[in-house]
Design a protein that fits this description.
The complex is a heterotrimer. By secondary structure, chain A is α/β, with parallel strands linked by helices. Chain A has seven helices and 15 strands. Chain A starts with 8 loop residues before the first strand and ends in a 5-residue tail after the last helix. Classes of the chains: A alpha/beta, B alpha/beta, C alpha+beta. At the A-C interface, loops of A face strand 4, helix 3, strand 11, strand 12 and helix 9 of C.
């Protein structure tokens, strides 16, 4: 038979990190392919995704949240919601998963060289941005000013805390964290992410803004970016949909004639404005 | 014979009310012997409404299909009533749903039409194959008057009626707000002749029969979607955790699906035959439903969808209920 | 392209020859329905039909397909499955054959679907011209004909006491290798007879869909209330998609016990709300209007944009079987007339 894109490679869970607890917990899984050749050949760029499965439970499509600059493993950050993600949250170090990919397009990290970058993330939407931010930071000299705007419902809901602590220490990255509701001891911004964006007011000159988060957040972030003078080809987002195949065959993740899994997940606002279809 | 003018006037009046969102009834279909559900949102829309023996659909499925999209800020939910045109059998579905509290009585305006039998579209299409131009079909006592290309033929009802109409005991809507025309009398009796005959077969014969039927099933769930009583928010077959029925299409899972559905309709099926009509593979689903209906009638003297005040069969217990069926 | 003649009396010899080297699938009567299934003898076939209940796409794109088998747990193992087998689909109608050519686009591309495409490579299509189109047939609306040989390897047309045989390509020729005693070269009069039979069938098709400029028109009316009017009577049963010869959406699920399992793919339908329902509870296509519109757009706008062909062959199955008379001929024709 021909080469089979549906058949995953086996990977071992090397580490499980709890990012967020509570009702909608998030964990980051560090996965290493069992076959060294597969590991070495699995090259990707920030924004790309992978189909991760627990054999017997099913598959899910996740953004790869680690940076391609970190070799030898990939990471996915998973919010516990459905059948597969719940089972994944019950998995431990040493458990085996199936992985196939990388799928989809990626952020134009080559084309953005020399530009100022603004990252605007909310909740679990930070996962693809984390890959991108770490990639940019590891290639810091190639890019201009960096602003990282990130928020969650409460301080407990912020992911990648340790990494943000380290980012905040750097002088060449501006980090702007926020939480939705006031909390004792929180000295940073209180309010929704789109409002924090207006407060930070990143200049649109020679800039690219990349946003990912809940649909409602993306909507207001884009409105506010336009208020700040960003044009539609300076704004990028990454989308998600229910997916089954990851390779543009099973049909369900289409927006108009495009498939989010194959033609996305990264879209410019200009592209999105010109395609119709439910999303 | 139903006076369509009277029907249209009633629909017009109903949709003119401030508290009615829309009225669902029938209009002529796009070809041949088809009728199709249609909706009146404003009085003019009533002009297209018809009623003829081609109106086979049970429209009570529509209030149950109402989608409730999330409200925008400041938006009020639309709580207006839905008007539904019903025949005798259809009305029993509403009654059953009311019993189960799946619908509130004041959320529907029931426009009842006495009906002495409809036409099975498959049977009439077989009689006039390939006829595309719209046709005229009228009810004339024990015959249907079918006018094709200007020529009228009178065909005995039994030749064209679906099974349900041949033994229908409820030609008049059991519940309505407005009745079109006058109630009719019927001497028909459900005698379960077919069920009885099937019961006489050997276990092996029965199993072979159903095996062959369930093998055909493609699990499209058209039976479920066409059924007004299949209104669960999440059907057990779509549940993933736990998963009751696997998605693989094979005899084992197909049997599980068809039997589970039949049992979920025990004491609830009102016999409108929509499942069987919608099944693209021609599985005789009513044979299952009728068997269960018969058992329930004999054991508990209960019939689904007769009185809105009564409790659903599975929600009432009587100390002298028979228990022989408990193994 | 060779034009031959096969005497009707020799048909069963032809089938018997095919059976020697291939699995042969042909229309079989079962109760009131015609289905394509494997035959072991020519007499099992029934060629007196218009269209099979389920389109023969199911022989290449199985309704239930085991993608691979596995052992779950920490000692997980994956075991590939093989799908290679020589197959002949005998008696496929030109419309259904066209649908398979349309499906090729979906299963090829950046990622090749090995299940469909392996079978496709190993399957020969021996078509049978349709000589009695039914009420809802409209293949001629797509400039095709009920006797088109375009999408099959060999086409047989019933011209009375014999079949007019069009050997369409190498695959067709190879299939009939060593059977030259069965086939004779066709005469001019036979070709004329085929044309007559074809014309008669074309003339029997009385319903037509207007597809002129439909792709561009749909671009302009996505938000039009027309779609609500079309879709409101839909009960979401999905028959239209399951029985559509060009529909190809699927679900993938794991079916396993504690010690072994399989990842299977199963036909799915965009008419079902669960199809796009996300784990968060959000559904981008929450209403029947969204879903019915998606079905029409997929066929008449998205597919043409991606692959330059309308994903409808005019077989009419969705019209025949819709329980509420949603009629794609009528819907698309009216969509073309909506004021944008």
């Amino acid at each position: 038979m021909k080469e089979n894109p549906y058949q995953p490679w086996l990977a071992t869970i090397e580490d499980v990190r709890e990012e967020v607890g509570g009702k909608r917990p998030i964990k980051t899984f560090k996965l290493k392919f069992q076959d060294k050749n597969v590991q070495n050949n699995f090259t990707f760029l920030p924004g790309q995704c992978a189909m991760v499965s627990l054999l017997g439970m099913g598959e899910c499509f996740f953004a790869i949240s680690s940076s391609p600059t970190k070799k030898g493993y990939i990471e996915v950050s998973v919010m516990k919601l459905g059948k597969v993600t719940t089972a994944l949250h019950e998995s431990e170090t040493g458990d085996v998963v199936g992985v196939r990919g990388p799928y989809g397009n990626y952020f134009d990290v080559e084309g953005w060289k020399g530009k100022n970058l603004v990252f605007i993330g909310g909740g679990i939407g930070q996962a693809p941005l984390r890959s991108l931010i770490n990639y940019i930071v590891d290639n810091r000299k190639n890019y201009g000013k960096l602003d990282v705007i990130y928020g969650a419902r409460s301080s407990k809901d912020l992911s990648y805390k340790q990494e943000f602590d380290e980012l905040e220490k750097r002088k060449d990255v501006n980090v702007h964290l926020s939480i939705d509701v006031e909390e004792d001891g929180w000295k940073k911004f209180v309010g929704f992410v789109p409002d924090n964006l207006l407060k930070v007011k990143p200049s649109p000159n020679n800039s690219i803004a990349i946003t990912c988060g809940p649909p409602i957040m993306i909507k207001f972030v884009i409105q506010n970016l336009e208020k700040l003078g960003y044009t539609e080809d300076q704004i990028f987002t990454t989308l998600e949909m229910r997916m089954k195949c990851g390779i543009g065959k099973c049909g369900r993740c289409n927006i108009g004639n495009l498939y989010v899994c194959k033609d996305g997940p990264v879209f410019s606002y200009k592209q999105l404005k010109n395609i119709y279809g439910e999303r | 014979m139903v006076d369509e003018k009277e029907l249209r006037d009633v629909v017009k009046k109903t949709i003119s009310r401030d508290d009615v969102k829309y009225v669902v009834g029938y209009e002529k279909g796009t070809y041949g012997f088809q009728a199709t559900p249609c909706f009146a949102y404003k009085p003019e829309d009533a002009e297209k409404f018809i009623f003829s023996p081609l109106c086979v659909h049970n429209l009570t499925v529509f209030p149950m299909l109402e989608e409730k999209p999330p409200l925008r800020k400041g938006e009020e939910p639309d709580t207006r009533k839905i008007g539904v045109v019903v025949k005798g059998c259809d009305s029993r579905a509403i009654v059953q749903i009311l019993q189960e509290k799946g619908l509130e009585r004041d959320k529907v305006v029931i426009i009842g039409i006495p009906c002495s039998g409809v036409i099975d579209p498959k049977k009439i299409e077989a009689k006039f194959p390939g006829h595309i131009k719209k046709v005229e079909v009228n009810d004339e006592d024990d015959k249907f008057a079918v006018t094709v290309d200007g020529k009228t033929q009178k065909i005995p009802k039994d030749e064209l009626m679906p099974e349900k109409c041949k033994t229908c005991e409820y030609p008049n809507p059991v519940l309505y707000d407005i009745l079109i025309g006058k109630e009719i009398k019927s001497k028909k009796k459900e005698d379960y002749k077919k069920v009885n005959a099937f019961e006489k077969k050997s276990m092996k014969e029965k199993w072979d029969y159903w095996e062959k039927q369930f093998e055909k099933c493609i699990r499209c769930y058209a039976c479920r979607n066409a059924c007004p009583l299949c209104y669960c928010k999440e059907c057990m077959v779509d549940q993933l955790n736990p998963q009751w029925v696997r998605r693989s299409v094979n005899l084992s899972e197909n049997t599980a699906w068809n039997l589970l559905r039949a049992f979920h309709l025990a004491g609830r099926c009102i016999g409108c035959e929509q499942c069987e009509r919608a099944c693209p593979m021609g599985i005789p689903l009513m044979k299952l439903n009728k068997k269960i209906e018969k058992e329930i009638k004999e054991m508990f003297e209960y019939e689904a969808g007769i009185s809105a005040e009564e409790k659903p069969l599975l929600a009432m217990f009587k100390p002298d209920d028979p228990e022989e069926f408990i193994l | 392209m060779d034009k031959m003649i096969l005497l009707k009396d020799d048909l069963s010899k032809f089938i018997t020859e095919l059976l020697k080297k291939n699995k042969v699938f042909a229309p079989i009567q079962s109760d009131d329905t015609i289905l394509f299934d494997q035959i072991t003898r020519p007499s099992e076939m029934n060629l007196d039909f218009c269209k099979s209940e389920i389109p023969p796409k199911n022989l290449l794109f199985h309704q239930t397909e085991t993608l691979f088998k596995f052992t779950p747990g920490t000692k997980a193992k994956i075991e590939s499955v093989d799908v290679d087998e020589k197959k002949v689909i005998f008696g496929i109608r030109p419309c259904d054959a066209k649908s398979i050519a349309i499906l090729d686009h979906a299963f090829k591309g950046d990622y090749e679907d090995p299940y469909f495409l392996s079978r496709r490579d190993n399957t020969a299509l021996v078509g049978l011209s349709c000589n009695k189109p039914e009420i809802n047939c409209f293949c001629t609306s797509f400039d095709d004909s009920p006797a088109s040989s375009k999408y099959v390897d060999i086409l047989l047309t019933d011209i009375g006491d014999k079949y007019y045989v069009e050997m369409n390509n190498e695959k067709g020729k190879q299939l009939t290798e060593g059977m030259s005693n069965l086939f004779k070269h066709a005469k001019e009069s036979d070709a004329k007879k085929k044309k007559e039979v074809e014309k008669k069938a074309v003339d029997m098709i009385s319903r037509h869909q207007k597809t002129n400029g439909i792709v561009e028109k749909l671009d302009k009316i996505f938000e039009n209330p027309f779609w609500k009017e079309v879709a409101f009577k839909c009960v979401g049963c999905g028959t239209c998609t399951y029985l559509c010869p060009t529909c190809h959406c699927f679900d993938i699920q794991d079916e396993s016990t504690l010690t072994k399992g399989a990842r299977v793919r199963v036909w799915d339908t965009c008419m079902n709300p669960e199809y796009t329902l996300q784990a968060s509870g959000y559904n981008p296509r929450p209403a029947r209007t969204n879903r019915v519109k998606n079905r029409i757009y997929h066929k008449y706008n998205y597919y043409p944009k991606n692959f330059d062909v309308i994903a409808c062959v005019g077989c009419g199955r969705c019209i025949d079987l819709c329980p509420v008379n949603i009629d794609i001929i009528d819907v698309v024709t009216r969509a073309g007339e909506v004021k944008a």
